[in-house]
Every structure is written in structure tokens, then in C-alpha cells.
Amino acid sequence: MNALPNRRDDEVRRLLDTPHPVVPVDMAARAALRGRRIVCRRRVEHTVLWALFVAAAVTGLVLAALTWPNDPSSVPSDGTWWSP
Amino acid sequence: MTANTGLPSHGHVGRRRAEAELRRDAEFAAFTAGAGGRLLHAATLLTGDPQAAEALLTTVLAHVYADWFRMRAEDPYEQARSELVRRFSYRPWWHRPRGGQLDRLSARERLIVTMRFFEGIAEEQTAAQLGLPLERVNAISARAAATLRSRRPPSAAAAGTSRPPRRTDRGERPEPPDRAERDGGGARRPARGASR
Fold it and tell me: Where are the domains of chain A?
């Protein structure tokens, strides 16, 4: 669309074309340290959430097995599944 | 799980995990050594303050480190740049950028000028990344470019690069600084007219 070289844009580009600032020597190490902390926090969060999910699934299965209605006499005999 | 491969920074992990972490450390160190200067330059242009730029870039690089295995074959520089843009554009209003080379530009104008003119991202991609219409990105970038060109830094003005104001082909002319300072929207009308 605007593929033509624009003199005004080139002027702004030249204005921004300055040498890069000096990167502090320990910035990469600090970033890696914080990144490792983020990774550890994510591992803890994932572990806790998966444990909660498994516990909920096991609880549901156990409750369903314990309270399963295997007595046919408790089912209403008028063709409905609810008891009025 | 073998407990003999306890990395000092990752606790006791398995052998494959330890190898992956060592590889990530090496790749991240190489990436930071290569691209850190340019990313810090972009962050300094955005925030205008070297300390704030360093803090922002440290946060961005920490998240790039944490997501190193999630981006499978993507460019880590792209990832870091988009993370930088995202974190800068969602900063709260009391972290308003001031100072620096792009002084007198608003936060959005700084963002668009840095993305378009410093990083060289296409305007469609800029618009998509910021969630703005393409015309709005063009208008903001033209206005910011006019602002940057009309108010030269005193060193460039003293070097004799300032020209007398003359009409250009689209009817836009650089404004004198006193009028542009008096009404802030003075640069808006010619910039919007020039983008069409």
C-alpha cells in the first residue's frame, strides 16, 4: 500500500537510527533467574490443579458407586423416572 | 526419576529435563547476547527512561525464558518484541512514558513510531497487533512523524538541517514549534489529511 519510499518516513527513521544502548552485564542472568521462578511457579500451579482435578474425579466415582440405585423397587412403576 | 542430576537452579529433575534446561540456558544466553541491545533500544524508545526500560525488558525476557519450549520453531525475537509491545500497551496510566528521544509523543504514538520506524514492522501487522484499524495506525503514525519532524532537537537544529517551511506536495508543511505547542491538535489536521 505504502510501499513507495517516503522521504518523511526516511527522515524519522534516520532520527531513530542511533547506536544501541549498552546492555547491563547481569540483565540476562536476572531475566533467566526470574524466568526460572516463573517456570517453578507454573509447575506448582499445574501440579495443584491436576491434583484437584484427579481428586474431584475420584470423589465423583466413589460417590456414584456408593449411592448407585441398584434396587428396582425404588424405581416408580408408572413409566416415569421421577417420583411425584 | 534419577536424583543425581540436581541442577543448582532447578532442583532435582530427571536427566532429560536437566538436558533440556541446560540447552535452554545456553540458547537463551546466546539470544540475549545477540538481541539484547536492539531490544533495549526499543524499550528505551518506548519508556523514555533507561531504568524503566531495563525493568520492562527484564520482565519481557523472563517471560521469553519461561515460554522457551512453548514456541516450537518460532523466532524468539518476534516473541520478545510482541511481548514487549503487549506489556507496554497494557501498562497502567500512572506509568506514563516521558522523556527520552520520543518526548512529547503520547504512549500510543511512541508505540506506533517504534514499531513502524524503528522495528520496521509493516503497518498492517502493526494494526493487527495493536487491534486498531489500518487507517487509524496510518493517521497516528503520520501525526507522530510530523510532530517529530517539526520539533527538532536543538543539536540537529544547530547543525543546520532545519529547512525553511515550504509547502509540500500534499499541502502539509512543518509547523513552527510555538504554534504547535500552543494548540496540541494543530498537527492533527494536516496529518490526517496527508494520510488519505
Answer: 26-67
